[in-house]
């Protein structure tokens, strides 16, 4: 489909832009210079032409926005977009080009530049037609493709009152190993398996079949249509698991943002964690998905979202998310504050080896309590969602 080409072009353009940015001296990184570089690239590289000029401009805008978000708020610096983990997507930056019409209670039609009219399932309340005004309207859309199909996400602008700043209860969250999500107050969020027993068996079966077919392939030979079909079915099951994980994440983070005013999370460098398998852009890792394993990859990505989702969800409710630089939260005792060797008995159990303390409990709960303690001690200097978090240092609170 034409949108695939557009999605590839979008990613390429982003990477070109990022390479350009890294090459340019600081004073030359202006929007005008970047725009000129993009124009030049579009003239020089044929397949970039499939991207409408507006969509190219949208990439430029998003890229500069990404830096702004990084400088002002919770986001990390923009990076290259790899072929494997990047979601294929095309941006339609202007709402008026979409020409959305409702054709049925459950179906709508939308115009995609260079593609034409496309039908979509009407699942959300959209401000269209008489219901649209200057304050409440659709300002653009993004067409996303994953293993389960194509989706369209509309950017909707609505008028909302600024939330009143909220103090609320404070909570620390730790990246769980034995339980999916442990909070400092003892709350634990659990989830079942992402795939049912039957689905898991099917996935294993498909993976074995793919491996076998691959073994019989001569080097350099293209994947056969049957093998490609197997790959697609594997990708479909993985996407299903991922979507269920995502749903769970949204539900739990919404509950956390609703319950607590301040959420402290460990400032882990998630990128480093994933990078080892992913490799670098110059030297990409091979068979990343297979090596990482389905659950591990979901787990790693899930932690990233444990930070990004509450960041905007708390901000929307007037709360704050604070990233706490807290190395060693898994080895420090949350009761006495000491780090003694051998305190972590196993992945799940923490027993303090300080003879005057001897606290024991769930290792993830211990970690979450540490995050909260360190935040309260004023170590949380990384503000999130644009709101500065300045806390006076308190003496080490032993609890
Ligand atoms: Zn202790």
Q: What class, by secondary structure content?
A: alpha+beta
Uncertain parts: 270-292, 380-399
Note the main sheet: 5 strands, mixed
Q: How much helical structure, as a percent, in the residues?
A: 40-55%
Give the CATH class of the domain at 170-194 and 249-379. Answer: Alpha Beta
Distance between the termini: 60 Å
Task: Note the overall shape.
Answer: globular
By CATH, the topology of the domain at 170-194 and 249-379 is Nucleotidyltransferase, domain 5
What's the alpha carbon Rg, rounded to whole Å? 24 Å
Bound molecules: zinc ion
Order of helices and strands: HHHEEEEEEEEEHHEHHHEEEH
**Major sheet strand order:** 9-8-7-10-11
Mean pLDDT over the residues: 79
Report the CATH architecture of the domain at 170-194 and 249-379.
2-Layer Sandwich
Can you give a write-up of this model?
There is one protein chain. With 399 residues, the protein is α+β, with helices and mostly antiparallel strands. Among the domains are: 2-90; 170-194 and 249-379, Nucleotidyltransferase, domain 5 (2-Layer Sandwich). It is built from nine helices and 13 strands. The protein has helices at residues 2-23, 31-44, 53-72, 197-215, 225-259, 270-278, 288-292, 294-316, 363-379, and strands spanning 88-92, 101-102, 107-112, 116-121, 137-146, 149-157, 170-175, 181-183, 188-189, 262-266, 320-324, 349-351, 360-362. It has a five-stranded mixed beta sheet, sandwiched between helices. A three-stranded antiparallel beta sheet has the order 1-5-6. A three-stranded antiparallel beta sheet has the order 2-3-4, with no helix packed on it. A hairpin with a 2-residue loop joins β5 and β6 (149-157). The radius of gyration is 24 Å and the shape is globular. The chain starts with a helix and ends in a 20-residue tail after the last helix. Mean pLDDT is 79; it is low at 270-292 and 380-399. It binds zinc ion.
């Amino acid at each position: 489909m034409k949108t695939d080409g557009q999605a590839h072009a979008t990613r390429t353009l982003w990477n070109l832009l990022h390479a350009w940015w890294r090459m340019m001296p600081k004073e030359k990184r202006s929007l005008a210079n970047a725009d000129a570089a993009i124009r030049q690239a579009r003239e020089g590289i044929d397949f970039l032409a499939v991207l409408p000029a507006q969509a190219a401009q949208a990439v430029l805008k998003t890229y500069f926005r990404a830096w702004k978000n990084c400088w002002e708020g919770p986001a990390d610096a923009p990076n290259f977009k790899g072929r494997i983990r990047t979601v294929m997507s095309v941006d339609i930056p202007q709402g008026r080009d979409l020409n959305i019409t409702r054709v049925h209670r459950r179906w709508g039609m939308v115009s995609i530049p260079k593609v034409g009219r496309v039908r979509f399932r009407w699942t959300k309340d959209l401000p269209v037609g008489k219901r649209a005004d200057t304050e409440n309207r659709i300002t653009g859309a993004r067409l996303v493709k994953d293993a389960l199909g194509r989706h369209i996400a509309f950017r909707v602008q609505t008028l909302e009152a600024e939330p009143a700043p909220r103090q609320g209860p404070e909570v620390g969250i730790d990246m769980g190993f034995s339980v999916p999500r442990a909070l400092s107050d003892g709350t634990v969020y659990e989830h079942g398996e992402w795939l049912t027993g039957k689905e898991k068996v099917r996935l294993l079966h498909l993976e074995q079949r793919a491996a076998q077919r691959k073994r019989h392939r001569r080097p350099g030979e293209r994947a056969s249509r049957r093998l490609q079909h197997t790959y697609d079915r594997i990708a479909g099951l993985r996407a299903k698991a991922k979507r269920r994980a995502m749903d769970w994440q949204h539900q739990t983070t919404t509950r956390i943002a609703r319950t607590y005013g301040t959420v402290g999370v460990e400032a882990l460098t998630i990128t480093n964690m994933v990078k080892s398998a992913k490799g670098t852009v110059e030297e990409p890792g091979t068979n990343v998905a297979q090596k990482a394993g389905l659950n591990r990859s979901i787990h790693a990505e899930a932690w990233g979202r444990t930070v990004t989702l509450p960041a905007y969800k708390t901000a929307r409710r007037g709360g704050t998310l604070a990233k706490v630089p807290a190395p060693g939260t898994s080895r420090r005792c949350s009761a006495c504050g000491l780090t003694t060797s051998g305190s972590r008995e196993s992945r799940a159990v923490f027993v303090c080896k300080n003879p005057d303390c001897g606290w024991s409990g769930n290792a993830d709960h211990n970690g979450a309590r540490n995050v909260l303690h360190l935040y309260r001690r004023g170590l949380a200097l990384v503000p999130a969602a644009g709101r500065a978090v300045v806390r006076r240092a308190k003496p080490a609170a032993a609890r």
